[in-house]
Specification:
The structure is a single chain. This protein has two domains: 3-79; 100-147, no CATH class. Helices cover 37% and strands 16% of the residues. It has helices at 10-18, 31-41, 50-55, 68-79, 113-118, 137-147; strands at 3-6, 23-26, 44-47, 60-62, 100-102, 122-124, 131-132. The longest helix is centred in the middle third of the chain and has 12 residues, at 68-79.
Length: 148
């Protein structure tokens, strides 16, 4: 399942990417662009815009929740999303591009010395160049995902 999160759901987009879901974030007032992209790429639009939902119910999912965690639970439960452990942390949370595994030596000049000396597995976004590793914050992310 692929998504487009509209301008009101930026945090949801980032979390879905962390969970391994291909999720575009389109913060534009031009709803026709979002609709066109959803149809072209066979994506479901996630929105808090009731009018957008009512006019396009076949390609939109209306989100009622107020906070990010509630919104994610709503998406997971109503769309029967599966959380696949192997897909968690597989997509750049910024660019929505699949991450590429990197050898430790390849990222030596890109990460802090402490990280280089204490971590063994690294991934990098081929678009933005950001390097990822399983840091302390990942424990919190996994706890949130487990609650879902």
């Amino acid at each position: 399942m692929k998504f487009i999160a509209d301008g009101m759901l930026g945090r949801v987009a980032r979390w879905l990417r962390l969970m391994g879901y291909d999720t575009l974030y389109m913060n534009t007032p031009h709803k026709t662009e979002i609709i066109r992209m959803a149809r072209k790429e066979k994506r479901l639009i996630l929105t808090k815009d009731r009018k957008l939902y009512e006019e396009n119910p076949e390609i939109t999912f209306y989100i009622e929740g107020k906070d990010t965690e509630t919104q994610l639970k709503e998406i997971k439960n109503k769309l029967n999303l599966e959380i696949n452990e192997e897909k968690i942390f597989s997509i750049c949370s910024i660019c929505n591009v699949p991450l590429v595994r990197k050898e430790k030596e390849e990222v030596k000049h890109l990460v802090p010395e402490y990280v280089y000396n204490n971590k063994e597995e690294f991934s990098q976004c081929p678009r933005c160049g950001r390097v990822y590793w399983e840091g302390d914050h990942c424990k919190h992310i996994r706890e949130v995902i487990e609650k879902l």
